[in-house]
Specification:
The complex is a heterodimer of chains A (166) and B (69). Chain A is α+β, with helices and mostly antiparallel strands and 166 residues long. Chain A contains 6 helices and 7 strands; from the N terminus they run αβαβαβββαββαα. In chain A, strand 6 and strand 7 form a beta hairpin. The two termini of chain B are 33 Å apart. Classes of the chains: A alpha+beta (166), B mainly alpha (69). At the A-B interface, helix 2, strand 5, strand 6, strand 7 and helix 5 of A face helix 1 and helix 2 of B.
Chain lengths: 166, 69
Amino acid sequence: MAALDPELDIAVAAMADANARFVVVGGFAVIANRFIRATEDIDFLVPDDAENDLHVLTALRTLDGIRFRDDAPLRDEHLLDQAHLRTKTSAGVIDILRGGLPPLDYETVEQRAIRAEYGDVEFLIAGLTSIVGFKRLADRPRDRNDLIGLEEVHGALPIDPLPGLD
Amino acid sequence: MAVIKRRPITLLEPGHQAEWATLNEEKRHALTPPSGTAVSELLRRGQHLSAQAAGLLRAVERANGRTRS
């Protein structure tokens, strides 16, 4: 049954059990980088890789995932060749995001990620440089606030030029 | 033979403001508690989020927050 409260530990365990490659981004990545604020959902960055997409879908199905917009049971084409999939799951709302152009492509974000462990499950969370890039790109009021908060914690933030933005 | 690299299908590049606005509004509509939500429910949600944040910080600390590179 779908839940509204995000359960990151449960979502991460499901992704790991399904052998999916992913990096935690979004609000939980901000928290992991030590600016503590509320977040309503879980965001996973995934590579442009059809086989991995099937692993991600397996994980979402084990969490009773359904597509957010119409409550449809998850089908492969909801993620394959798609830039984004939003789901309702028993671990809360989970957004699956395809990596962007360097330096916000999956491989660069993964390479710069920090590690974390829930029990025996090791997983990756976007590092500060990647988060700053995502926030600069999105540029919503909340993103600007995150940048202010992260700067208070870390000092001057690392800024990579972004294609089309800088 | 030249290898043509496919441009990634992504919203993480400039020019997708309209899609993001729709996605953000969809999420805000679904996840913002209604104004009549009981304080006890707001507290429960807040405490749950705090517990998730604390658990995540412990998870990073356990792995020493090592970067991959």
